[in-house]
Amino acid sequence: MSADFDLIVIGGGSGGIAAARRAASYGARVLLLEASRIGGTCVLRGCVPKKLMMYAASFSRAIAEASGYGWSGVSGRFQMEDWAEAKVRELDRLEQIYQKMLADSGVEVQIGRAQIAGAHSVAVAGRTLSAERILIATGSAPDRMALPGFAHAWTSDDVLDLRSLPSSLLVVGGGYIAVEFASILAGLGVPVTLAFRADLPLRGFDDDLRSSVAEGLKARGVNVAARSQMQSIKRTESGFVLHRANGEPLHAQAALNATGRKPCVESLGLATAGVQLDEKGAIVVDNQSRTTANGIWAIGDVTNRANLTPVAIAEGRAFADTEFGGHPTEVDHRIIASAVFCDPPAACVGLTETQAGAMGPVDIYEARFRPMRTAFIGSQERTCMKMVVDSRTGRVLGVHMVGTDAPEIIQALAVAVTAGIKKADFDRTMALHPTSAEEFVLMREPTRTAGGIASKIQADLKET
Ligand code: NDP
């Protein structure tokens, strides 16, 4: 007996939608199951509303800087309610676009919570449907377990749904979400404290990028509480208090838990289906997103590889190309550009100085300067650029930037880094003047050589 569908996709976020549409384009009969709304974290609870909130915050800065450029009488007050209404309309519009794209692609959509009932069957809304293949693309959700007391704190979902601003905010965590929301809420005029346990925010990023981001947060008025040994967070009459083993308690009217996300695997029936999870609760997959159960694949955050929208989309399309298109495809997870939308923003592609230096000697090129736009009004803000180059081959291994338009600039440079560009190619590229980006083609001499044997020799010389 033939199956009801060639493919059932569980999860209507960026990855699931991309996989469903690509599979349908090859003629597959596809059903997409989604528990709530089409669009997933990126469109409804993440990248899109976050960036719309970031744009809202950016006007406070433009208003403050306008007088330096000769404008008088520029002032304003942020009405969160108005922004929230406009955001709801925009997300509704985007959801409808996704629904239409799925319908136009021939993908059938059903709203309902799905449970895997066997290698080739899924239960949803009282029915059991069969498919040749099942793809799990259920994403991730905020983790509330990092500290006792987090049950009452906001998550990023709650902040994006606010209708009014808190009088003060305590952000716990030092990753993407913590840094972005601390910066955005501070930009909207909220007194923000950012508490994290490391020396600098954004563990895993290049150290120079991390210290520039910390400087940027402080310049925006964020109280940066680094090296906080957090014990618990408690609700008080006036808000929240964060108890720390090594410092005064931190108080605020509201608290945001930004201590990471966990894969959404509950109630999917994975154990009975034979789908293995790793120690962090993520679905174990191979290079072609196959789980340990025959007939079941998984992509995106639920697999905890690189938890970024474009990666989930690439994994979803690679799955469909492999299984339905006849082109076996694997996603290359080695070079992935990413950005942190704080103010000024940070972005990077490729290896950090520490990662590259562990593999061999690297030349480090840097530029730190006051950009024209803010220097004109007397700001001390600095743009920071850094290039990590393999000393032996001249290949550019990593590019890092903190400054206005960094995400846009790094996206373009990511093409070059992915193509294996060499430092000499930057050197023979004509500058586009006057821009900040031109500094990347004007870096003549390395500021230092690091890593590999070269740094060992330098360290030995220092000691003698
Ligand atoms: P991250 O994993 O980036 O950061 C988690 C933070 O929480 C880290 O600073 C970590 O500290 C801290 N933390 C974890 N456990 C504890 C604990 N028990 N006590 C104190 N601190 C703790 O998670 P996010 O929630 O910021 O982001 C989730 C995912 O969403 C990321 O993987 C990211 O890829 C994605 N994302 C991407 C964005 C973008 O591309 N711009 C924007 C937002 C999210 P430590 O470093 O010390 O471990």
TrEMBL record:
NAD(+) binds at residues 173-180, 260. This is Glutathione-disulfide reductase. The gene is gorA. GO terms for biological process: cell redox homeostasis; cellular response to oxidative stress; glutathione metabolic process. GO terms for cellular component: cytosol. Binds 1 FAD per subunit. Keywords: Disulfide bond, FAD, Flavoprotein, NAD, Nucleotide-binding, Oxidoreductase, Redox-active center. FAD binds at residues 51, 138-140, 301. PANTHER family: GLUTATHIONE REDUCTASE. Residues 336-443 form the Pyridine nucleotide-disulphide oxidoreductase dimerisation domain. SUPFAM superfamilies: FAD/NAD(P)-binding domain, FAD/NAD-linked reductases, dimerisation (C-terminal) domain. Pfam families: Pyr_redox_2, Pyr_redox_dim. Residues 5-316 form the FAD/NAD(P)-binding domain. Its EC number is 1.8.1.7. One of its GO terms (molecular function) is glutathione-disulfide reductase (NADPH) activity. Disulfide bonds join 42-47. NCBIfam families: PRK06116.1.
